Amino acid sequence: MHIISEVFAWLPDVQLAHFLILSAILFTLGLYGIVTRRNAILVLMGLELVLNAANLNLIAFARYGGLNLDGQVFAIFVIILAAAEAAIALAIILNIFNRFQTINVDEVSSLKE
Amino acid sequence: MDTFDIVFYAFAAITVLSAFVVVFSRNIMYAAFSLLFTFCGVAGLYVLLQADFLAVTQILIYVGGILVLLLFGVMLTNKVVSVDIKTGTLHTIPAMILAAIVLGSLAAVFYATWSTTPDPVASTTTTTKAIGELLMTSFVLPFEVASVILLAALVGAALMARRTRKP
To answer: How many CB atoms lie within 10 A of CB B94?
Structure first.
């Protein structure tokens, strides 16, 4: 452990900003996935990344920013909504697949047959 | 540079690298399975932030529930045996510009606002009991609304995903 801490001694000590920057990176990756992916399920995965980034922010502020346990309770609600969203979205995607035989979001472009 | 920092950087590396694989991999299965590592890395970061209940909830719901659901979606909507499960990407250049702008502005705001951080709030007990008490006192209304939402999502998903009868 001492060797590791000596090798990586140039890294700054972890503070609130580290968690915030990490969640910003996660958010950006999720956003990029949402925008670029053709497959609807991969768009959903990007959405989960974005929600995780938001949760990480909430909990980091719960620890460092004086939000205390309220932040963690709010994060629980975010997780609940993410579960509901994933179930509904997958049901919709299955319906789209049954109708169009594809789930590429750029090919599903007709509202009515 | 103590143990806390080492563990943070390890989990951060796991999270970011596997998130990169999720976003950039051309194989859906690779993306889904590296999403597993992203969720576990975020759960480890929750533990570092002394949110033990949230970490367990993250693993239970995200890894055990949502990820399995996504895998079911992949299996049901791709003809795994016949067609390759590769996937394409759309307009990557504007997305890269957008992502760079968003990341730059977020990082700038975070760094400008929180470069000097307050000391962490001391917490010596586990959070499970306190969270339960909060859910039953201050957050009763959101708790009940969330339960209704979950019920509605359950019924709605079951109705929508049911195999429709041929007319």
So the answer is: 11
